[in-house]
Amino acid sequence: MFIGDLEKVVSLLLCLSSRLARVQNAMRKINENTDQSLNERHNLLSRQREDAKDLKENLDRRERVVSGILSKYLTDKQLQDYKHFVQVKTSLLIEQKDLEEQIKFLEEQLESLEKSILHFKRSV
After folding, report:
1. How far apart are CA 111 and CA 104, in angstroms?
2. Do residues 2 and 55 lie in contact, with contact meaning Cβ atoms separated by under 8 Å?
3. Which of 16, 18, 74, 121 suits 102 as a labelling partner, its CA being 20 to 30 A distant?
4. Could you report the average pLDDT of every consecutive run of 10 residues in the chain (124 residues)?
5. Which residues lie closer than 8 Å to 26 by C-beta, 6 or more apart?
């Protein structure tokens, strides 16, 4: 159960951070004429990310409790393996989200390039 919750919370944090970064980039592009809806979206995502950070802190406390319980039943080697698994799982989730973001960015670039080429062909 803990590992499932870990996946959900880490994914939530990464997703919110990514969405918040996109809104911040959009706000920088618009600059002084920032749309009110972008400001509202930024504020909402900021609050949601803070809530997700609180969830992560609670999950970290829960992980310490789970490790304490497991230490009574597992050998030192098994407990180390479990802790390593949790660390690797988190790292892989972060890497997966990063790769998904890169793919999405490249797909958007490709779509924009295809539109530019199409527009160029029509104008020639």
Report:
1. 11
2. no
3. 121
4. 88 86 80 72 89 91 93 96 92 89 89 88 82
5. 38
Q: Which of 60, 62, 59, 56 is nearest to 13 (CA)?
A: 56
For 68-100, give the DSSP string. HHHHHHS-HHHHHHHHHHHHHHHHHHHHHHHHH
- In angstroms, the CA 77 to CA 115 distance is 56
Sequence spans of domains, the chain: 2-123
The CA distances from residue 117 to 34, 109, 123, in Å, are 30, 12, 10
pLDDT for the residue 112: 87
SS3 content of the chain, % helix, strand, coil (to 5): 95, 0, 5
